[in-house]
Amino acid sequence: MEGRPPGARPGARRDRPDRAIADLALAPAGEARIAWADAQMPVLRRIRERFERERPLDGFRVAACLHVTAETANLVRALQVAGAEVALCSANPLSTQDDVAAALVLEHGVEVRAIRGEGLDAYVEHVHALLAGMPQITIDDGADLLVTAHAAGGDALRKLIGGTEETTTGLVRLRRLQDAGELACPVLAVNEARTERALNDRHGTGQSALDGIVRASNVLLAGHTLVVLGYGWAGQGVAERARGAGAAVIVCEIDPLRALEARMAGYEVMPALEAAERGDIFVTVTGSRRVLRGEHFERMKDGAVLANAGHFDVEIDLDELRAHANGGVREVRPLVEQYDVSGRRLNLLAHGRVVNLAAAEGHPAAVMDVSFALQALCLEELVRHRDDLAPGVYPVPAAIDEEVGRLKLAALGVRIDEPTAEQADYRESWL
């Protein structure tokens, strides 16, 4: 990895950082997009201003495997002015904004390895290239950096002081490493922070998943039946917004308490095999595998739309869908593949990849403002406590969660009450 020239200011333009991007000529459009997102990210901007004064990450190398979007670019800018050297690759080939990647390289001197539509081999190569730079901190969206580092071992693993994880799927993988006694560094579970759950999962995924479905298919939600498979925070958001758009909503769950929550919220709850016969639109958001598979495809009605809002493209069984398409497969719209299953047309969106990023622009910048504010403060926390934290998956400290919440409320012009001394004492007393 190319080092920073002596005396160069982090964030200053460099001519030739290492890169694998589509086209440097796209940089002006990308810079405009980054500026547009920045205007909607006041919390991260406040943190960036403090970071520029205090430089809490000075001299640290950060590798980030994230969606390469304008919002991510503003996180990278904040880490740069904090003193970090940042290298970035894409967590999803269909979410990369090529103009943003070009702007990060040309205008901000960032090592970027991301091309929209890149294949699996290129993705793996990019992950390994970031680890070859011997980062001390990782930011993951799916745990691929950390899992790859653990699989490879050696210096890349020994250099790590910690990382953060943005997804439920990634945390499942990292906790398996922890349970096996093999996790070699501390990881902060950004995905499970209270502010992250409320804004990113519920409001971000809720809006952006439906945005992706509508952009790709132009389907009318009102009057149709939408099936949500998984009723976690993200599933709740999808269900709420689908109902608000006039859809009838069915929820499928394996967790009895979540299923009860859905029923008490007024949704129909039933097994997926029953829902398969009734749904017009299906949205998987579980973090698991093969949630929709052959027996479901066999029961679906003609014209059903299939979309995945989970991180990996494993929730809809694509192999079984292809195997059932005895009438063939054809592309009927950009990002819509139609599978002819015994005369019934099943329409898969965005190749089964995360639909809100593959078919739309992902979460609004105002939502990612909170997510990336958490990320920035968590990296500061890892550096500050690098000698104190043993390997393991840790919750985001409550103080960070609350700081981000306060900053977001302030940006929205919202004031709240403070407890009185009597109320504070009452909360802490057992009498």
Structure report:
It contains 18 helices and 16 strands. The protein has 431 residues and is an alpha/beta fold. It has an 8-stranded parallel β-sheet with strand order 1-4-3-2-5-6-7-16, with helices on both faces. An 8-stranded mixed β-sheet has the order 10-9-8-11-12-15-14-13, sandwiched between helices. The longest helix has 24 residues, at 194-217. It is globular.
What proportion of the residues form beta strands (DSSP E)? 15-25%
Task: Please state the overall shape, judged from the principal axes of the Cα atoms.
Answer: globular
Question: Roughly how many Å is the radius of gyration?
Answer: 22 Å
Averaged pLDDT: 93
Distance between the termini: 61 Å
Give the strand tally.
16
Main beta sheet strand tally, sense and closure: 8 strands, parallel
- Secondary structure class reads alpha/beta
Write a concise synopsis of the structure shown:
This protein is α/β, with parallel strands linked by helices and 431 residues long.
List keywords for this structure.
431 residues, alpha/beta, eight-stranded parallel beta sheet, eight-stranded mixed beta sheet, 45% helix, disordered N terminus
